[in-house]
Amino acid sequence: MFYDVKDLRDTEIFLRLVSTCEAQPEKRWLPAYYFDICLLDGTKIGHCDLRIGHNDKTYIGGNIGYGIDEEYRGHHFAAKACRLLFQQAKKHGLDYVIITCMPENVASARTCELAGGSFIEIADIPEDNEMYEEGKRQVKIYRFEI
User: Fold this and answer.
1) Which of its termini does the chain have fewer beta carbons within 10 Å around, N or C?
2) How far is CA 16 from the centre of its chain?
3) What burial class does residue 61 get, using C-beta atoms within 10 Å of its C-beta: 0-12 exposed, 13-18 middle, 19+ buried?
């Protein structure tokens, strides 16, 4: 079940729902929301997604993913989008979410810190994970209490 997203806005940005995806148990994928991150005038400045629930895949891949278009970086828009996604996660009864990033991605690690995450560990990516197939070997894991 997916919930309304009209309240996912603050004084600078809002999240525009692009699509939802039902769980795909055969791939260990959880239900997910996919959003554009937009300025209040509707300008798209990036994207984000929220995976609902917890399993071995979200521990490594995270409940939340995000990306900000290059010309809009440096304004903490990703951290602001994460805070809005926390509201949506709470609607689903989640009391925490995981966000991960590559160890060398300093900007994403800073986003996790700005959004209030607690660093848990640097974990090895299992060989059966899609991220491993992409050549990634480790992730920094952050936990966010909501």
Assistant:
1) N
2) 15
3) buried
120 pLDDT tier (thresholds 50, 70, 90): very high
Distances (CA, A) of 22 to 94, 95, 101, 120: 17, 21, 24, 29
Helix (H, G, I), strand (E, B) or coil at 101: strand
Please provide the distance, in angstroms rounded to a whole number, between the alpha carbons at the two ends of the chain: 20
Pull the structure tokens for residue 3.
């919930």
Superfamily of domain 13-145: Gcn5-related N-acetyltransferase (GNAT) (3.40.630.30)
Q: Which residues pair with 119 in a beta bridge?
A: 142
Look up residue 8 and give its amino acid. L
Task: Kindly state the tokens that stand for 68.
Answer: 């900000």
The mean per-residue pLDDT over the stretch 28-48 comes to 97
In this predicted structure, what is the pLDDT of residue 75?
A: 97
Q: Which amino acid is at 134?
A: E
pLDDT score at 57 = 93
Beta bridge partners of 142: 99, 119
As a whole-number percent, the residues of the chain with pLDDT over 90 amount to 98
